[in-house]
Write a structure and sequence with these properties.
Helix content: 55-70%
Oligomer: single chain
Number of strands: 0
Largest sheet: none
Order of helices and strands: HHH
Radius of gyration: 29 Å
């Protein structure tokens, strides 16, 4: 069994090169489809976020409560200024 070289893989005159070239449109379509699905999902989620922000601005729904501020142990210890 011989080693596969880049030249053999990318050469359109070999069986492997022809199979590789034939598979490119299918791979491209699969990738494009996944990108469109992800983009559509993001657009739908972003639209929902914008509608929620608008409803909050109009006073139709309350804003979520603010989180508690972070408490760092070093901030609670008394500091000695020398």
């Amino acid at each position: 069994m011989s080693k596969l070289t880049h030249a053999q893989y990318f050469d359109p005159n070999t069986d492997l090169g022809r199979r590789r070239l034939a598979s490119i449109p299918e791979k491209f379509e699969r990738i494009r489809s996944k990108m469109w699905d992800a983009d559509l999902q993001w657009l739908v989620e972003e639209h929902q976020r914008q509608e929620e922000r608008l409803a909050q601005k109009q006073g139709l729904i309350p804003y979520p409560p603010a989180p508690e501020p972070l408490q760092f142990p070093s901030a609670q210890e008394p500091h000695e200024h020398e």
